[in-house]
Every structure is written in structure tokens, then in C-alpha cells.
Amino acid sequence: MDLENLNIKKREPLALEITNQIIEYLQSGKVNPGDRLPSERQLAQNLGVGRSVVRDALKSLSLLGILEIRQGDGTYFQSISSELLPRTIEWGLLLGKKRVLDLAECRHYIEIAIVKLAAERRDQQTIEELSALLETMKNARFDTETFAEADLQFHMKIAKASQNTALHDILSSMRSLLDFWIKRVIAAAGDSQYSYDRHLAIFEAIKEGDAQKATKAMEKHMESALERLKTILKENQKDQA
């Protein structure tokens, strides 16, 4: 047999296939926000898979805030963000904790490379735009949505200031991950002051054109944000155990 002529169709991991099928069910209009889903056993029977696969899919969707798992009461549909969902699937965010942390680690190194270039290449317009976003963040200390949006734009402005289109495009493709991450971390903290202080340090280093200082400030920000994300994921697993 000539192995080179074999046409092998690549399949998605079963967990992701089942997750996509559950999402299609949620988007079908048969389920409204607040409705309880069929039991884990019933879903497994309908989908023709084991309960463990369904359980993993439900946990992943719960992590994204699409479902709410209530111990002893069932699983409830919350909502689906039309902007968040397609890219979380594309990036494999639905595959669980390991994948989320891998992507977070990827972001860590990308952001550090970007901020170094931004500090070296920034112009007055960049400084003014970052300053305006910082002011928005300062005034939205207890407004998670507004703060998170300004936070996201802050990082994208830095990416643009790096004048490296490849790095900018990579970070841009991770926007959904960043949006998910930022909102969860801020909501868990209950107060965005610490995050604001980290961004202020990054801004000041960029404004001064100090690449080394900017790199250290971003690294500190990424490390603290990653630790908070790990805490959130750990607590989420405990709630669903």
C-alpha cells in the first residue's frame, strides 16, 4: 500500500465537536437565557457520547460564562456573545484550563516584545491616546465593562505603536481572549485600582522612551494578571467539582 496516496481527513477533538454541537443547540432558538438544559445523561444519550465528554464541554462553556452550573439544580443557559464566541472556538479556548494558560503564556511574551518596540518608536499621538485611555480607566474604577474596554484598547494602541504589523496582527487575533481575560480578572478583584496602577507604570515608561523600564513594567503586569487568572480557573474548577 502506498501511504503517500492515502487521504486522511483530520478531525477535531471530540470534546470540541461536542462543544460546537451544544453551541448550535443553544443558538437554535429552542433555548432562551435562563432556561435549564437537559440533564448531562440525556445530552450524552442524544449526542451519542460518554457523559465525561459532555461534562467537559459543559464546564468549558461555564468557564466562558455561557452556561451556569448550579450544584444539585442543573445547568442553565446564560447568554452567548456574538463577538466573543467565534474566536474563542477558533483559539481553542473551549478546550479547558491547559489551553487557556497556554494562550495566556503566549500573550505574555508577545506583549513584552511589543512594549519594548513601542517605547522605542512611540510618537506624540501615541502618548496622547494612551493618556486618554488611562483617564477613562481611572474614572471607571468600579465600572468593569468600561474599564475592560479601555484596558483592551490600551494594549492594542501599544501594539500599533510598536510599528510591527506582524505582532499587532497576532495580538489583534487574540482580542476575544483578552476581552474574556480582562473582564474576568477585574470582576474577580472587585476593584480595578491595582490594574490601573500597572498600566500607569507601563505608560510612564513608554512616555519616557525607556524600553527596559517598559519591558519590566509589562512583565510585572503580565505576571500578576496571569496569577489572578490561575486563581479564577482554580476556583471555577472547585465550583464545578
Short note summarizing the structure:
The protein is mainly alpha-helical.
Question: What do these coordinates show?
Answer:
This is GntR family transcriptional regulator, transcriptional repressor for pyruvate dehydrogenase complex. It comes from Seinonella peptonophila. It holds the Pfam family GntR. GO terms for molecular function: DNA binding; DNA-binding transcription factor activity. By secondary structure, the protein is mainly alpha-helical. It folds into two domains: 72 residues, Winged helix-like DNA-binding domain superfamily/Winged helix DNA-binding domain (Arc Repressor Mutant, subunit A); 145 residues, GntR ligand-binding domain-like (Four Helix Bundle (Hemerythrin (Met), subunit A)). Helices cover 71% and strands 3% of the residues. The protein has a two-stranded antiparallel sheet with strand order 1-2. It is elongated, with a radius of gyration of 21 Å. The N terminus is likely disordered.
- The CATH class of the largest domain, by name, is Mainly Alpha
User: What strand order characterises the main sheet?
Assistant: 1-2
How far the N terminus sits from the C terminus, by CA atoms, comes to 48 Å
How helical, in percent, are the residues? Answer: over 70%
Looking at CATH, which topology of the largest domain would you report? Four Helix Bundle (Hemerythrin (Met), subunit A)
